[in-house]
Amino acid sequence: MKNTKANSLKKSFGYGFLLSLSNPLSMLFWLGIFGSVLAKTVSTYDIDHVILYSVAIFVGLFIWDITMAFTASSFKKILTSKILMIISILSGLSLVGFGVYFGVQAVKLLFF
User: Fold this and answer.
1) Nearest to 71 by CA among 3, 24, 19
2) Which of 20, 37, 69, 89 is the most exposed place for a label (fewest CB within 10 A)?
3) Which residues of the chain are under the pLDDT cut of 70?
4) What CA–CA distance (Å, rounded) separates 51 from 57?
5) What is the pLDDT of residue 66?
6) Strand ranges inside 1-112, DSSP E
């Protein structure tokens, strides 16, 4: 019985890791961060630092994806449909709030 549970957890973790790693939005997010850090690094430091920062970003990405996969597989039993609905609503409201805030900041910057 315990072996089956361990296999289920490994499959869940692996699925979550692959999902996080192959998520197009996640890829675009990390490419944006990588691009901005790389542009600053190339203009300021030598090639050794560029390579060091590039490796550090990829290691950080790997650690982040493992952490997200572990978190998703760990909370699989705890998160019910109702809790997921509440999280989705709060996330949506948060995104709308940020959108309004940045929209107001853009209008102030452009017109005032």
Assistant:
1) 19
2) 89
3) 1-3, 5-6
4) 10
5) 82
6) none
In 3-state terms, what secondary structure has residue 39? helix
Total Cβ atoms within 10 A of residue 17: 19
List the one residue out of 18, 55, 17, 65 whose CA is nearest residue 34.
55
d(CA 43, CA 87): 41
The answer to whether the CB of 69 falls within 8 A of the CB of 12 is: no
As a residue count, the chain comes to 112
What single-letter DSSP state applies at residue 14?
A: H
**Amino acid letter for position 75:** F
Closest by CA position to 76, among listed 19, 8, 21, 27: 8
Both tokens assigned to 17: 């890791």
Q: Which residues contact 54 (CB under 8 A, 6 or more apart)?
A: 34, 38
Q: Is the pTM higher than 0.85? A: no
